[in-house]
Design brief:
The chain is α+β, with helices and mostly antiparallel strands. The protein has 2 domains: 10-59 and 66-329 and 594-625, D-Maltodextrin-Binding Protein, domain 2, CATH 3.40.190.10; 345-591, Dipeptide-binding Protein, domain 3 (Roll). The chain is built from 19 helices and 25 strands. The protein is globular and about 75 Å long.
């Protein structure tokens, strides 16, 4: 659901937002890569290591026993029930077709796995070691001999080669994300090498390390009916995996249960110590977020990530919460605040002029919404990298100014002369003044009031816009905005559709304005091309929701990707941030500095939490003693 903060459904959003160390694939979209900065000195040619870090030095040595944020003695057992909204019609989360079940990607392992307390690092999972030359033109992974699929067959270089091709063929996002891999070959008995079409891109070995490995023999085989399987098609047949969980009970569109694999091949690896502690993970689907909330209060769901400020302030005053059987907690992390925004589809001519987009922002009264709808819980976003050193502040100086000067002719003049600030409303007087400014901008862009309607001075076409939503909960935010826009003569409609329709329209760029979002790591890289690059503006299924085609932005993305050190990376990111925000592709929304989590008090967790996640269900465990004391809870 899209609530006050970005989410497509509660279970998947929970996993993504909580940033557990394990990579989980959802709805065909690779989770954002959480990797940071650039090594002061590159690893020597082809030196095999147990992990990768763009800092150069790894926090955990080859002999480490567990991550610092886990309890290696955590008991196994119990069931964790999670809520989701909408429905699903597929157990294949990697393809464009259909709506995948939440958590269905957890049955697979990746070549490497991230550490949630070290944003620059990956450690070997399927791969026991990795190496690359100083120019980062390739990456070689040596697979573990003990790596196995759930059917007992070994994971092979052939599986890795098959996986890359299958993913690139199945979804345009993967095709673009892995576009820099020109070739992959088996280079040893249990070794595979990826060759890149560029040099100096230090992120590529880590991107490759997050590749989800799929079973070639399964997908090239036949199902129980003797029909040949097709990876690009949706399926409700539980696929073969290799990870800590396998798919158990499936009730199509209603629920999914994952079962812990007792003989999981990697359960004793240091990276898995103290993790994957639940015997079962059950995802229950509900029609909408309101019903899901009531299911939580009725003890049908165990834990909930709350996206609504109103709910957090008012909806949890019920007996179980008052007596302590339900725990409410805001867990802060060091993650970059995701940019959530009203996103303009600039592929449509009416939004092609920056002045029009700026006028819309002037009409949005965040201050009123924060006071009356959000209970004062939010701060307004003013950056695509807010709450981090990557956010542009003040006027550009030093290296950032040098980088921006390379694109001076192709960016708004304000980039160099003004500090970006969102319009401030909050009372009738301020709103009137901002609406007057908006009218002037619209007039300058060629729009005139004709018989009370804002119309194109040349064509006579009326300005009409549709807000496409996937959650009724967001309507209460858009409707006051609608009234302000109507005062400018703009015809506004609000349409809320189901998840499947929304996904289809999003993938095909069939919308005027949506509520969109982009999570960011502390080290932006190749994913920025998918977010803002010209080549993805027309690519079906890309995350370039705004349809940005801007050569200055393309140049700045390359400056980020090929930055030679951390200082240059930060400067280039700030430059990109500044150009994005001054181009007004979006109307920034809001953020909080923590995850609002409500849970029934039947779980325990390590005393130390990771810096870049809450540790939720990756490191938590079922606590029978607590569960026994919970009134009206399950035994």
């Amino acid at each position: 659901m899209w609530h006050e903060r970005v989410a497509t459904n509660s279970a998947a959003n929970m996993k993504q937002s909580f940033r557990a160390a394990r990579t989980v694939i959802r709805s065909g979209v690779a989770c954002a890569i959480l990797i940071v900065v650039l090594a002061a000195a590159p690893v020597s040619a082809q030196q095999a290591r147990h992990g990768l870090s763009l800092f150069g030095a790894l926090k955990y040595p080859p002999t480490f026993r567990n991550f610092d944020y886990v309890n290696p003695a955590a008991p196994k057992g119990g069931t964790l029930r999670i809520g989701a909204t909408g429905t699903f019609d597929s157990l294949n989360p990697f393809i464009l077709k259909g709506t995948a079940a939440s958590l269905s990607g957890m049955i697979y392992d990746t070549l490497m796995a991230r550490a949630a307390d070290e944003p620059s690092a990956e450690y070997g999972l399927i791969a026991k070691s990795v190496s690359h030359p100083p120019d980062f033109s390739s990456a070689t992974f040596v697979l573990r001999d003990e790596a196995r699929w759930h059917d007992g067959q070994p994971i092979t270089p052939e599986d890795v080669i098959f996986s890359l091709k299958a993913l690139k063929d199945a979804h345009p996002r993967y095709a673009y994300y892995y576009a820099n891999i020109r070739e992959v070959k088996k280079t040893g008995r249990n070794e595979v090498t990826f060759y890149f079409n560029t040099k100096g891109n230090r992120e590529l070995p880590l991107i490759t390390g997050e590749l989800v490995v799929l079973p070639k023999h399964y997908w090239e085989g036949v199902n129980d009916k003797g029909e040949k399987r097709k990876f690009s098609a949706g399926t409700l047949e539980p696929p073969l995996g290799s990870g800590p969980y396998r798919i158990g009970t499936v009730r199509a569109g209603k629920s999914l249960t994952l079962e812990r694999v007792e003989n999981y091949w990697a359960k004793d690896l240091p990276i898995n110590a103290g993790r994957n502690n639940f015997d079962r993970l059950k995802v229950e689907y509900f029609r909408d977020a309101t019903i899901e909330l009531e299911a939580f209060k009725a003890d049908v769901v165990d834990v909930r990530s709350e996206n609504s400020a109103k709910n957090w302030a008012t909806a949890y005053d019920f007996p179980a919460a008052r007596r302590g059987d339900v725990i409410l907690e805001v867990i802060a992390t060091k993650n970059v605040a995701a940019m959530q925004a009203f996103v303009f589809n600039t592929r449509r001519a009416k939004f092609s002029d920056r002045r029009v987009r700026q006028a819309f922002n002037l009409a949005f009264d965040f201050e009123w919404a924060n006071k009356n709808l959000f209970y004062g819980q939010y701060k307004r976003l003013r950056s695509y990298f807010d709450n981090s050193e990557l956010a542009a502040t003040g006027l550009p100086q030093g290296k950032e100014l040098e980088i921006l000067s390379e694109v001076r002719a192709d960016v708004p003049a304000e980039v160099f002369t003004k500090v970006y600030e969102n319009p401030v409303n909050g009372d009738a007087g301020k709103l009137r003044r901002n609406l007057r400014k908006a009218r002037k901008l619209l007039n300058a862009a060629g729009w005139r009031i004709v018989k009370g309607a804002l119309s194109d001075a040349k064509s006579g076409e009326r300005m009409s816009v549709e807000f496409l939503l996937v959650s009724p909960a967001f309507e209460r935010i858009v409707l006051p905005f609608k009234k302000n826009l109507e005062r400018l003569g703009i015809e506004v409609s609000v349409r809320t559709v189901d998840v499947s329709q929304y996904r289809n329209r999003l993938d095909n760029f069939d919308y005027d304005i949506i509520v969109g979002g982009w999570g960011q790591s502390l080290s932006p890289g190749n994913e920025q091309r998918n977010y803002w690059g010209s080549a993805t503006a027309g690519r079906k299924g890309s995350r370039n929701y705004a349809g940005i085609k801007n050569k200055a932005i393309d140049h700045l993305i390359d400056r980020i990707i090929f930055a030679k050190d951390r200082a240059e990376l930060v400067a280039a990111t700030r430059a990109l941030d500044r150009v994005l925000i001054w181009n007004a592709y979006v109307i920034p929304n809001w953020y909080t500095k923590g995850e609002r989590i409500a849970r029934w008090n039947r779980f325990s967790m390590p005393a130390k939490r990771p810096d870049y996640g809450t540790g939720f269900f990756d490191t938590w465990w079922f606590d029978p003693a607590k569960a026994k004391s919970v009134k009206n809870g399950r035994s």
